[in-house]
Design goal:
The longest helix is centred in the C-terminal third of the chain and has 27 residues. Strand 14, helix 7 and strand 15 form a beta-alpha-beta unit. This protein folds into four domains: 242 residues, Glutamine Phosphoribosylpyrophosphate, subunit 1, domain 1, CATH 3.60.20.10; 210 residues, 3-Layer(aba) Sandwich (Rossmann fold), CATH 3.40.50.620; 97 residues, no CATH class; 67 residues, no CATH class. With 661 residues, the protein is α/β, with parallel strands linked by helices. The chain is built from 25 helices and 19 strands. The chain has a six-stranded antiparallel sheet.
Length: 661
């Protein structure tokens, strides 16, 4: 929806210029409007803050906002938004899908509204109910709420982290914003590199929260809130963020038939509420059942809805375009096929790389389809993201279970012996890369949670160590995840299916898919909504027993297929997940070779990386007949290009800093 920024500082002269630099860097997130206001931070007559600490009387907070108008296009939706009765102030990025119900509840409390936006509803909800408002909110959001009576700021992020929020605390300032590179644009935060963030990115293909690749910038945790007072402007330690949502702790008793009926009604309600907008809405349609279900339900409420599919023609063997076109014809809805032309591939690839907010090997497809929707005049798009994680659409659900059972059966064999056998087999077969990942599986965390993490690995432990990034030296755990990272109660009564689901939702979905989707869509002036991640659905489905959601050797996501079998034709209902399989490796060896070469050279600014090993990986990949999967060198290419773009706007050479939690 928008971009938000706040800077807390005792030097009032620096605040507004810095906030406006951040706003300018995020103008793509909100092309329709902008706003700035300055707010005093809490202190008493003796110059002490709320905790009795000495503070400077000049401490202020500057709030900045960029707006993409979606609900209530009038000036009544302008932000920063003030509650005239209390003086409270809000800057908010996202959508509150149950805002109409909350509005009615607030009106019964005597609240009068000036406009029709969900932002105004959120503002009054926070003014009226305070922290208790979190139990009522259903939506995607990242916001800062200024409470006038205490002169404190409440920061919060939605349960699953659909909307981004980043923070940076330094000795004399505190900054938060919707984007990492926007924080750097403030000129108030150095771009010192975090070797732990870099290692996590190379291990998993995307930076693992709460880290970023920059030492002083951290991702605000999903499902959490935190009160910030004037002490933050003086470098005082902050109170820890508190969780306002976690996955269910206990298994529900519902059986399959009850779950089928409940899920059907929940998703209809979710799609209906996700369609609310004062701008054109489209559906991202692939050849799978997830987006087909969304398109079918959306058609019931908005008969003129348009479906969009990205087509790759001769660029890939299993192009989803023809299947999606046939599906749209069967549904009787308008369909637009966005063809990715080979002649313009380099241009689109370069644009995607240039606009990354955090380095990731994923997101090119989303960038291409987002660009197509925006050019067609669509401002809101519905995506099937989240269904695979909730209902078991990935191979990791079965593989994690099987590996866990295998490791339980061979627990008596020393891990070192298991690794030696696998290494020997890898040497004989010539598949050393696969063998190294299997070694990590056999010698790592044997729980289904640990295995699920391992199956998402891009580079093995040995590869990372050869690059100069051993887990302990970079401040990470053995699995290259941040030590003590918050996994939102991943375990659930020993239920393996749910354990894998929560790993996928917290890590892969949270740190890769959602972050990439937000960045690529917002750079095109498009808001992507994810009805499968509506809070009531997540709360219910993630609490169901894994036995209700899985089904032997049949097609994946059986609960979802059964719940909507009446909406899907037999051919669609039986269709397996295809996904996008672009020939990226061929591109990197061919028409994108020159740009990839340039990106690899940029890694010389990362002194913690072994440059000889970087070159060895790249040259080995380029050799004719190389069996190396493109994802390994792509991670290096993406990182190099990202640092190049960031370095172009930096005055000082980047430095690697010893990683900290």
């Amino acid at each position: 929806m928008c971009g938000i920024v706040g800077i807390l500082s005792r030097d009032q002269r620096q605040v507004e210029p810095a906030v406006r630099r951040v706003m300018h860097a995020m103008r793509h997130r909100g092309p329709d409007d902008e706003g700035y206001n300055e707010l005093p931070l809490g202190r008493d007559r003796l110059g002490r803050d709320q905790l009795g600490r000495d503070t400077d009387d000049g401490a202020v907070a500057g709030f900045g906002f960029r707006r993409l108008s979606i609900i209530d296009l009038s000036p009544a939706g302008h932000q920063p938004m003030f509650n005239q009765a209390t003086g409270d102030c809000l800057i908010f990025n996202g959508e509150i899908y149950n805002f109409r119900c909350l509005r009615s509840e607030l009106e019964n409390c005597g609240i009068t509204f000036a406009g029709s936006s969900d932002s105004e509803v959120l503002l009054h909800a926070l003014s009226t109910w305070g922290e208790a408002a979190f139990d009522k909110l259903q939506g995607m959001y990242a916001f800062a709420f200024y409470e006038a009576r205490s002169q404190r700021i409440l920061l919060a992020r939605d349960p699953l982290g659909i909307k981004p929020l980043y923070v940076a605390q330094l000795p004399d300032r505190f900054i938060f914003a919707s984007e990492i590179r926007a924080i750097l644009a403030s000129g108030m935060v150095s771009d010192d590199l975090d070797v732990g963030g870099i290692a996590g990115m190379l291990a998993y293909g995307a930076v693992q929260s709460p880290r970023t690749v920059f030492q002083h910038i951290r991702s605000f945790p999903a499902g959490c809130f935190q009160w910030i007072d004037s002490g933050a402007a003086a470098g005082h330690p902050l109170s820890a963020a508190k969780r306002h949502w976690s996955f269910p702790r206990h298994i529900l008793a519902d059986d399959r038939s009850t779950a089928v009926a409940t899920l059907g009604q929940m998703l209809h309600d979710s799609v209906h509420r996700h369609l609310v907008a004062d701008v054109p809405v489209g559906v991202l349609l692939s050849a799978g059942i997830d987006s087909t279900i969304l398109a079918t339900i959306a058609r019931e409420y908005t008969p003129q809805v348009t479906a969009f599919t990205i087509g790759f023609g001769g660029l890939q063997s299993n192009d989803e375009g023809p299947l999606a076109t046939a599906t749209a014809a069967l549904l009787g809805i308008k369909h637009v096929l966005i063809e990715l032309e080979a002649a313009k591939l380099s241009e689109k690839w370069s644009a995607w790389m240039q606009k990354m907010d955090s380095p990731s090997v994923d997101g090119f497809n989303t960038y291409a389809v987002s660009r197509g929707l925006a050019r067609a005049g669509i401002v809101v798009g519905l995506s099937g993201l989240g269904a695979d994680e909730l209902f078991g659409g990935y191979p990791s659900f079965r593989r994690s279970d099987r590996w866990s059972q295998l490791l339980e059966a061979i627990w008596f064999i020393p891990p070192s012996l298991r690794s030696s056998v696998v290494a020997g087999l890898g040497a004989i077969s010539g598949r050393n890369a696969a063998a190294e990942k299997m070694i990590d599986l056999l010698s790592g965390d044997p729980t289904v949670t640990g295995i699920a993490h391992s199956l998402r690995r891009l580079l093995s432990n040995r590869h990372l160590q050869t690059l100069g990034l051993s887990d302990h030296s970079v401040g990470l755990a053995n699995d290259y995840l941040p030590s003590g990272s918050d996994c939102m109660e991943l375990a659930l009564d020993g239920d393996r299916f749910n354990a894998v689901s929560r790993v996928e939702m917290t890590n892969y979905m949270g740190d890769t898919l959602l972050r990439d989707t937000d960045t690529t869509s917002m750079h095109n002036g498009l808001e992507i909504r994810v009805p499968f991640l509506d809070l009531p659905i997540v709360q219910y489905v993630s609490g169901l027993s894994g036995a209700v959601k899985r089904q032997g050797n049949g097609p994946p996501k059986p609960l979802l297929r059964e719940a909507f079998s009446h909406l899907l034709s037999p051919s669609i209902r039986k269709r397996l997940k295809t996904g996008f399989t672009l020939p990226i490796g061929e591109w990197m060896r061919g028409q994108l070779r020159e740009s990839c070469d340039s990106a690899i050279q940029q890694l010389d600014c990362v002194p913690c990386l072994d440059q000889n090993e970087v070159q060895r990986i790249w040259q080995s990949f380029q050799q004719t007949g190389s069996s190396m999967h493109y994802s390994r060198p792509l991670a290096l290419v993406v990182l190099g290009n990202y640092l190049k773009v960031c370095r172009q706007s930096s005055r000082e050479p980047m430095q690697c800093v010893e990683s900290q939690a």
